[in-house]
Prior knowledge:
Blueprint: H1 4-24, H2 28-36, H3 42-64, H4 70-93, H5 96-115, H6 125-143, H7 147-156, H8 161-185, H9 191-214, H10 220-243
Helix pairs in contact: 1-2, 1-9, 2-3, 2-10, 3-8, 3-9, 4-6, 4-8, 5-7, 5-10, 6-7, 7-10
Amino acid sequence: MITIDALLMGAGIILIASFVQGLTSFGFALIALPLLSLFLPIQRVVPMIVILSMLICLLVLGSVYRDTNIRKIGLLIIASVAMAPVGTLFLLIISGSVLKIATGILITLFAVFLLSGRTIPIANEKAAYLSAGALSGLLSGSISVSGPPMALMLSNQGMSKQMFRANLALVGVILNGVTIITFVYSGLIDQEMSLYLGWMLPVMVIGTWIGVKAVNYLNEQKFKKYSLGLIILSGICTLLAGLGVI
Length: 246
């Protein structure tokens, strides 16, 4: 049963998370997952976040699609799509807290490293994209947090602001679409969740629109700094949620 409190709290969370996603092309799940899971079961939260995330990525992609580079990120897309069903299996058989703790630690450490101004030399870029894509697929299917591995990989490779946003949005549309299909077959999407989503859609559109407009006021350096700062914050939140602190 959906309560008024759950609707109001959910709307506030979705508004903020969709603004961040519209601004950076990732971060929606990182913000929404630990907060929504405070008052909703994670098995309901994850499918809902993935559906909204895909719709937001579609909205963002509409404004930056000319900057996509499918040839550059093709391997990342293939690997993420292949591993998404495995991630859904993890959601069904592995404790959500264990998944959150492991994800939070890895994301936070890597993001702090990049924020220091360093990059990791990659000798085999194809293998690196495959690895980042595989991890994104696993995380998308299990806890709906697919963005950080991809964002960190693209940031490490020095992509421009617009190409960064466009490629993340494209991968988000494809990966989340595949993940939604696995959720449907797994019976994780029901009528009550669909009703809740219906209430959240207008809020999501408003937040995304504001974020897309706000990105014009950020230069490349600030964009990268804010993006990595967001990854660190969300990684810590994901870790704390797994530990039961929040």
